[in-house]
Amino acid sequence: MAHPLTEWNSDLCACCEDARYCCYGFWCCSCIACAVSEKFGEHRCLPILDICSPAITACCGCPCCVAPAALALRVGIRHRYGIQGSLCKDIAVSCFCEWCAWCQMHRELKYRMNNHTVVVNMQPTPVKLSHAAPLNAARTGPHGFVVASY
Known about the structure:
Elements: H1 19-27, H2 29-40, H3 48-59, H4 68-81, H5 87-96, H6 98-114, E1 139-140, E2 146-148
Antiparallel strand pairs: 1-2
């Protein structure tokens, strides 16, 4: 059963919602990127690829303007939490608004961690009948209830 897709908890440019972390991201974008990567469960140093990859690919003659870690984490967050969007939008945001993207991902992870949903399974435990007992004997379950009687 598919779950309905949701929206991002905050807009891309909603820096006033969490001004403290947006200032942190503005003054040290690589620091907030590493924090987002770690909160999402990836290696803390993954965003270093965003710094190194343009220089490496340019040396090989292939200019790269999309930050690979920002793109990968943005797509991962969207898929994990069922957020609407497309790969084209993720590429555009990662390419042209990387600082805002890291701040939005930080706000989203903070929101999801504070407002997590707990699923409670209320199904009864299965009762396993023994084949060794005669059919006309009554058996009781672990709580003293009659399981079967013939």
